[in-house]
Please model this.
Amino acid sequence: MAVTSILSRVFTLSFLIFLLLLISPSTAYSRKACQSPTRNPLQGCPKNTLLVGPSQKHTTVQSAILNLPNNTTPYTILVLPGNYTEQLNITRPGPLTVLGQTTHPNDATKNSVNIIWHNATGTATTGTYDNAYTSTLTIAPTLNSSLTGSGPTGNTVPAGTPFGNTNFRAYNLNFINAYLPYSAGPSLALSVSYANAGFYYCGLYSYQDTVYVGKLGNAYMYSSIVGGQTDFLYGFGTLWVQSSLLQLRGCGGGVTAWKGSNTTFVNKYGVYVHDSEVRKANESLQIEGMCALGRPWNAQHRSIFANTYLDDSIRPSGYIEWSATDPRVNYNTTMAEYHDYGPGFNLTGRLQAANITIEMTAAQYAPYSTVDKVFQYPFSGKFGNTAWIDRRPEA
Ligand SMILES: *[C@@H]1O[C@H](CO)[C@@H](O)[C@H](O)[C@H]1NC(C)=O
Ligand SMILES: *[C@@H]1O[C@H](CO)[C@@H](O)[C@H](O)[C@H]1NC(C)=O
Ligand SMILES: *[C@@H]1O[C@H](CO)[C@@H](O)[C@H](O)[C@H]1NC(C)=O
Ligand SMILES: *[C@@H]1O[C@H](CO)[C@@H](O)[C@H](O)[C@H]1NC(C)=O
Ligand SMILES: *[C@@H]1O[C@H](CO)[C@@H](O)[C@H](O)[C@H]1NC(C)=O
Ligand SMILES: *[C@@H]1O[C@H](CO)[C@@H](O)[C@H](O)[C@H]1NC(C)=O
Ligand SMILES: *[C@@H]1O[C@H](CO)[C@@H](O)[C@H](O)[C@H]1NC(C)=O
Ligand SMILES: *[C@@H]1O[C@H](CO)[C@@H](O)[C@H](O)[C@H]1NC(C)=O
Ligand SMILES: *[C@@H]1O[C@H](CO)[C@@H](O)[C@H](O)[C@H]1NC(C)=O
Ligand SMILES: *[C@@H]1O[C@H](CO)[C@@H](O)[C@H](O)[C@H]1NC(C)=O
Model:
């Protein structure tokens, strides 16, 4: 064999290895090693990891966020145990992973990092005060794109607004809006618009409007806990809740309140709860048969609870109308279930009490049965782009 041919083979091989390195996921480190407490906390963490802790250079998470370049380079932030009273705003497009230090990386009930804020829309003293201002964590490219607005299509986002973060991931963090321990106006723990965001082993706690997934927002939750009382999953975007706990802290409105608009039809917008549990927070809550799975924020509401356990807090009817005088239910409204079970699943009630909940057939459910089918924007490939979802989150 000619020397040039061998050289060319060696060159081709090194080029292939280089390509492999280039496309290998940024999570090719041990999350467990990075998150476990060690003498040097950053031991086991990927390069480009910033440390946040009570006696570190960055004592707040937002201080580390503000230190990140506004580009597409991946970064990680490791947060040491503590209670951080602050709001976090993530505008950068590049991948960002925020990890809470923990010895239990696969258990959201043992998180030791709490990000806490205490605002509600109703606390505004002057002018209009959009729900966006209340959120503990906001992931959106601009303030304007995160605004809820009002009316059937909500806030009009300026044309040409770029997509924000393409790959945000949070592990073992609690985001808490502790405004008051009951529904007292919109008080968000999370707001995602024009961005892709994944939450793994996280806690999101408030009472009203806990999670907002806004215009062109894509959010995925896995093995996480979302606590709320009123309309606590709401928005225009697309949210997939997988193998998680929806914790009822009382009843009001519904668990879900979704709205379709002309800017959301590019996606299979809606809220999809899969293989999860809906349970009251504790046994002292007297809410048997009182909580609704959802209500239509507008008639294009779309939500599906699939293969999900419902405790006895859920009403026989499942879903409800927006209100008696303003039902907001028509041919376009999708308030559905597929193979739910548990004491809160009352088939007779579903069919008779209000006749508002759709019990989907396999064929009706099929278009919404996987994340690849519902997350369609930004477009990439046949089934959209879901590379931002961590498919193997266990540490
Ligand atoms: C970040 O960069 C983008 C693209 O260059 C730009 O549109 C945006 O205004 C920048 N954001 C900040 C906060 O500087
Ligand atoms: C955070 O606050 C809670 C409630 O006040 C407290 O139980 C916990 O010990 C605090 N965590 C840390 C790490 O200080
Ligand atoms: C928002 O929350 C912060 C931090 O808890 C608090 O200091 C501030 O008074 C709150 N503002 C409003 C308008 O409620
Ligand atoms: C986050 O964004 C909200 C809404 O724009 C704003 O009120 C708040 O001051 C921002 N907080 C930080 C820490 O940037
Ligand atoms: C958001 O953008 C829209 C459209 O450009 C504009 O009408 C509106 O005033 C903006 N809102 C804020 C709070 O900047
Ligand atoms: C039960 O949960 C509710 C709602 O979060 C809370 O207000 C109440 O304090 C809890 N009760 C007990 C005994 O933990
Ligand atoms: C959506 O509808 C609103 C209100 O009718 C309109 O102002 C806006 O231009 C529409 N946006 C798109 C993307 O069609
Ligand atoms: C259903 O939604 C489509 C798309 O927005 C709309 O054109 C149609 O008028 C809606 N139908 C009803 C009955 O609201
Ligand atoms: C189921 O719903 C029916 C019709 O509303 C009602 O009569 C019945 O009591 C419900 N069963 C339970 C266990 O709630
Ligand atoms: C429930 O609604 C469907 C569709 O609107 C209708 O065909 C059916 O007759 C209704 N059933 C009852 C018991 O009202």
Q: What stands out?
A: Residues 3-23 form the longest helix (21 residues). The CA atoms of residues 183 and 238 lie 24 Å apart.
